[in-house]
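Board notes (copied after class):
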Amino acid sequence: MSSSEYDYDRESEKREECKQKSKKRRNYFNNDWQQTYSWLLKGKEEGTAKCIACNSEFSIANGGVYDVKKHMKTGKHIKQVENSARTPNILSFFNSTSTATSTKNNYRTAAAEACFAYHTVQHAHSYNSANCSNSLFSVIFPDSKIAQTFSCGRTKLTKVVTNVLAKESRKLIIQDLSGNHPFSLATDASNKGNIKMFPLVVRYFKKDVGVQTKLLNFFDSSSETSKIIANCLIEKLKEANLNPQNVISYCADNASVNFGKNQSVFVELQKFNSELIDVGCLCHVLNNSIKNASNCLKFDLECIIMKTYNTFCSHSKRKQELLEFYDFCDVEYSELLRHVPTRWLSLVPAIDRLYKNFEPIKSYFLSMSSCPALLHDFFTNDLAEAYLGLVSNIGTLIQNVILKLEGEGPIIIEIYDLLSNLRNSLKSKLEQKYYGMIAHQAMQKCDDFNEVNLFKKRAEAFISKIVDYVEQRFDFTQNRFEILKIFKLETMPTFEKILELLQKFPIKNINTDILFEEYVILKQKFPSLENLSFEQKWVTFLNTCQVPNFEKIVNFVFALAHSNAMSERMFSLMFQAWRKDRNRLSLKTIEAEIMVKHNYGKTCKDFYNYVLENEKLLKTITLWWFLRFKFEFPPHFSSIAILFGFVGDLPCIFLTLWV
């Protein structure tokens, strides 16, 4: 053996001896340490330990318990322990669900939280106030178990509204329109600051309830071209898994962007359904008729109403001076009403209020040293009251029709009779030269016969202009909606009329032979339906008899839109919710609020009972909201969880294992 080989063996023996000695001195994890240090666990390898507070492993091979104490003094460990102390245990957010009683209490708490969110939306309360209410209820109701477990601050309330209640309302709409259920589509555009908003409103018939008008989406778009609007509508329908071919009518205001012959939203939508029916807004037509006809009068009453109102609306001194004229004329004071040109129903009440206060207001303006020329000419005219009476009388007729058209029932059935009766009434006034009692009394008091004759000519032109305007925009000779009045069931319709309706409207998959058999059933049931409204007649008939062909016809006819008031109503809700003191609400929250407020349509008290009966909704609020938004699980987690239907103790078991 050479000397080099001998030296190598000696060094190997020395290294082996050192390893044996160090192995004897090596420290190992001691389970007794966990009694003192609750955050300590055994490491994956020998001679290591794991800290669950800061989620790290460290060596204890050399120092043993000294290494544990050394780790406990590190900055990272101290910081994590402090954070853990401030964070409550996840199970503290859940009550024990081991008994039926506790489950019932949990559901009642969830129902209270949902109803509180609904109440906040209904009355447009501040979401920040929920943080105060959240801690207040447990103090003012100390004997209530629900108040003690109630937990719905600003963040949770927002998520309950946007991700639970709004989504549930949208889901119910999609369920109602599943299959080939026909429905109408309506939209409009309105600005909120520099944001242009579009509601997507659907109208359909549900046989156990009646006509339904629901908000499916409320979206913003930077452009208002016909192609972009149509594409947005189709995109939203496809997102909801609704077939655009099931849209039977499109309703909007009468602007060219909606119903232009060559390029419009209606033309773009016809590419998806060639049999789509265009339904303009007759409320706009009637409102514009009286606005255009007012040009035939000697005075612009709209301008007079607004100038008179603006004179007193923000001047306390002028109002005090006006009160003296009320006392002098012995007239009880009442506030003048504001007229908004873009509102359909504000002109007639404002005119009636001005006529009621005519004498003191006339005296006030004529006593002014610098009365506006328009008001001076009006109040010095002997037939000023006659003009007010004329517009009030004709405007009341038109307003009554508009009020009817603003309803959400199946007004399409009455639409021909409504406009036909209005036209006949206006023509009768022309033939009889009757312009209202106020106008006739004013003409009898006037001694200037030339002025009276001029008034009669202007009144005749005023009424004729309204009739011509309506006739140009509503065809009374070949109107397809005339046949629909047979569905009022005032008298038993003939079967020939029903067949005529099928020829005028694209109602598909109707077996006329079976339809006749169903017609016989309707004839037998007709006497028992006489005391009901025509909508309830069909609801009762469809729910008590198996008549699939009649059901398809009614679904089609009652789903037809009749005015754009249902879209305009969404903007009213938007401006009520999006006030200056709530201007930080996001578009998503505003959309959810309008959907919740309009689609459910219940009082807060009724909504509480509705939620209590909806177990799936209660489960969503009690558990899956927490998992989704407290721990930022993926968006589809809630749906998967509900799909598998975790109930009872499983949520707590799952959370315990997860922690």
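Comment from the instructor: The chain has 31 helices and nine strands. The first strand starts at residue 40 and ends at 42.
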